[in-house]
Amino acid sequence: MGWQPTRLTRAQLEERRLVAGRLLRAKKRSQAEIARELGVSRTSVTRWKQGIERRGTRALRRRQPGGRPSRLTSSQWRQVFRRLRRGAQAAGFETEHWTLPRIATVIAREFGVHYDPRSLGRALRARGWTLQRPIPRAKERDDALVEAWLKRDWPRIKKGLAAQGGSLPSWTRRVTRFGLPSAPPGRPSGSRRS
Questions:
Q1: Mind listing the pLDDT tens digit for each residue in 120-140?
Q2: Residue 102 to residues 40, 74, 107: CA-CA distances in angstroms?
Q3: pTM of the predicted model over 0.70
Q4: What SS3 string covers the chain?
């Protein structure tokens, strides 16, 4: 058996079933051999064989996905995504953070279609809109002050800790990761291997 992708498309799954159907009708290999060759369970091959016996190769063809059709047309979904890209404040919300209830409110307001926020996430993901979590930052954060501290004060503090003797506490190694990326991870820049 060769390389098997972790996720197969609907067309690839159908093709694999049809190959199994051809191998089953040829009756030259056992179900176990077919299962090993295609990278599936023997149960699947048995189920496909029973489907062929009842309905022929039509049983191996892919079916339309189940579920209720979308209540918005594709052009309406494009309008929703344009609205989302403009931002939550442009849609009348206090903050710039989109949530599923807010998106459901916008859809209801614009198109009169009511989505439950719990099921809206699936519809958005199916159309390529993914969850984005903002990086938490303190409102009072002053990036210039943090950068100055890392350049001026932290090296002095670190040298003082090292001068007191021995190795630095583990928290000091953690803190240095937040500084500016002056050197790639690993050895400090300018140091030589002994």
A1: 988 898 888 887 777 777 878
A2: 43, 20, 9
A3: no
A4: CCCCCCCCCHHHHHHHHHHHHHHHHHCCCCHHHHHHHHCCCHHHHHHHHHHHHHHHHHHHCCCCCCCCCCCCCHHHHHHHHHHHHHCCCCCCCCCCCCCHHHHHHHHHHHHCCCCCHHHHHHHHHHCCCCCCCCCCCCCCCCHHHHHHHHHHHHHHHHHHHHHCCCCCCHHHHHHHCCCCCCCCCCCCCCCCCC
Contact 129, 81 (CB under 8 A): yes
Distance CA 92, CA 103 (A): 12
What mean pLDDT is predicted for residues 37-63?
91
Q: Report the pLDDT value the prediction gives residue 103, as an integer from 0 to 100.
A: 94
Indicate if the pLDDT at residue 187 is higher than 70.
no
Give pLDDT, residue 10.
84
Residue 108 to residues 100, 120, 167, 183: CA-CA distances in angstroms? 12, 12, 61, 51
Chain position carrying tokens 């918005």:
72
Query: Per the structure block, which two tokens stand in for 184?
Result: 């790639």
Question: Rounded mean pLDDT of the chain?
Answer: 82
Q: Is it the case that residue 23 has pLDDT exceeding 90?
A: yes
